[in-house]
Amino acid sequence: MSKDTKTPKDTHYANLRRAHRDQKRERGELPSPPPFRKKKAEDWKAPQHAPDIVFLYGLHTVRAAISNPSRKLISLKVTQNALARLELDPETLSCPVEMVSPQDIDKLLGPDAIHQGVLLETRPLPVRKLDSLKETPLVLVLDQVTDPHNVGAILRSAVAFDAGALVTTERHSPTESGVLAKSASGALELIPYVQITNLADALEELHKLGFQTIGLDSEGPAPLEGTFDGGKIALVLGAEGKGLRQKTRATCKALARLDMPGAIKSLNVSNAAAIALYAARNHLAK
Predict the structure, then answer these.
(1) 97/120 Cα distance (integer angstroms)
(2) What pLDDT score was predicted for residue 276?
């Protein structure tokens, strides 16, 4: 057998050796390897691709996308090592699989993307409308939260607390992208990401669907826990710094605050979302 031919057994033992080395480095028994010097980000130019194409990357993100029946796959570019870690049989996929080097993926995503040796080319997820939320008791609404890392973290919390959707505006909000999906760590595939044109109109539509809309505001007149009323809740959060816009505040059925006894009185929007979802779930469970 050629030295270049690797069997599943070889790959298994290579993974075990790598894990053993990583554990020794964490204990300080081995020095950390020198940082891998990629091409500088300012020297990289993004290749042109069609607007209806989404590049997803990272092992967990790609695994979740492949498992999502609503996700239309176009192609998978993957290294030999990443394919073994994905634990997928290429023959079972609905798209072509191309074996590549990490550098090939760097050329498409740039040197800063932590792709872990895998890139999935897909179509965007199907558009979802607000009237599809009739049967869910809990949704999360974002008022111009622009950072895809924050929105990704919020998606994870929304899935963890079984919210029915994350609603956000088409403008001043991140579109579906590899950065958003990677930050969500698979959650983008598990919850509708509903983008609407006008937030005030969307809140009024949620009212017609029976939702109590509660805007989170540090100066809210009452604690969130005492504001819940009814069996359908829509939590509305604004961007860090500016918070909810005036029109949004005026349209919400109620404004509420998160009481914090400590010296710090404000939280990152993703942390505030997680706490608010927890409180809402406690109310709905009663």
Answers:
(1) 9
(2) 97
What is the topology classification, in CATH, of domain 50-126?
60s Ribosomal Protein L30; Chain: A; (3.30.1330)
**Cα–Cα distance measured from residue 277 to residue 139, given in angstroms and rounded to the nearest whole number:** 9
Q: Within the chain, which residues score under 70 in pLDDT?
A: 1-6, 8-10, 22-44, 46
Same fold, 50-126 and 130-284: no
CA distances from 172 to 66, 161, 197 (A): 29, 25, 11
CB 238 within 8 A of CB 216: yes
Cα–chain center distance at 153? 6
Look up residue 16 and give its two tokens.
Answer: 């075990």
For the entire predicted model, the pTM comes to 0.81
Q: Specify the pLDDT at position 72.
A: 96
User: Which amino acid is located at 36 in the chain?
Assistant: F
Taking the domains of the chain in order of start, what are their residue ranges?
A: 50-126, 130-284
140, 279 Cβ separation under 8 angstroms: no
**Residue matched to tokens 């505006």:** 169
What's residue 242's pLDDT? 84
Q: According to the model, what pLDDT value does residue 5 have?
A: 58
CA distance 160 to 142: 17
> What kind of fold does domain 130-284 have according to CATH?
Alpha/beta knot (3.40.1280)
Provide the pLDDT for residue 9: 64
Which residue has tokens 């895809």? Answer: 148
Measured from the Cβ of residue 234, the count of other Cβ atoms closer than 10 Å reads 29
Q: Residue 1: what pLDDT?
A: 44
3-state secondary structure of 141: strand
Identify the burial level of 217 via C-beta atoms within 10 angstroms of its C-beta, where 0-12 means exposed, 13-18 middle and 19 or more buried: buried
Q: Tell me the two tokens of residue 10.
A: 């070889």
